[in-house]
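Hey, I was hoping to borrow your eyes for a little while. I'm sending you its amino acid sequence along with the C-alpha cells. Take your time with it, there's no hurry, and the full record follows here.
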Amino acid sequence: MLQNPLQLRLEKLEPWKQITFMACLCERMYPNYAMFCENTQFAEARVYRDILDSVWELLTVKSAKVNFERQLEKLEEIIPSSEDFDFYGVYPAIDACFSLSTLLHGLLDRDDLFESMQKVSQQSVMTVAQLESAQLEEEVTNENQKDNEAVCEEWDVQWAIFRPLKDAIERDIDLIKDLRLELREEGVSNIGVSL
C-alpha cells in the first residue's frame, strides 16, 4: 500500500464530499475502461458511463432516485477477467470497475463510506504504480514512490480534488458539477489514456 498524508485528511470529509471524491477518481479511470472496450469489443463502455452518471445525478439532483443494487448488477456483467485477455489494458480496466464497484458498495452501506473512499484512492494510485513498475521493471514502493513522477502526479491530482471539497461549507452543487466537467473535458485518465 502506498501512503500519503492525504489519506488521513479524507476521513474528516462529510459523506457527500466522500462520494464526490470517489466519483471524481472513477471519472478519471473511465478512459482506461473505454479504451479497453474499444480494443476488445468486450462490452459497451457506455454501461460504465451510465452507472457513473447515476452517481453524479444523485449528487446534483435533489429528487434523484437510484437503485444502486441494480447498478451493481449491471456493473458486474461488464467486468473483464485478466485470464481472458492477453494485453496490459485489461488491468486498468478491471481497476476502474473495482473502483466503481467500491463506490456503489459505499452508497449501499454508508457506514463504510470512508473505507470505500480509501480503497478507491489507493486503487487509483496502484493503477499508476503497477503500470510504472511494469515499464521500469522495478516495483514502486512506499519508500521510492517520491522518485516516481507519475505516482507523484496522481497524488497531486487527488489533492487537487480534495482541497475544494474540504473547503466547501455545505453541499455545493456547482462545485460538484465543475469538478465533473473539468475531469470529463480533460478526458485523460490516471495513466494518461485519453478519450
Observations:
- The domain at 7-181 is CATH 1.20.1590.10 (YP_001051499.1 fold like).
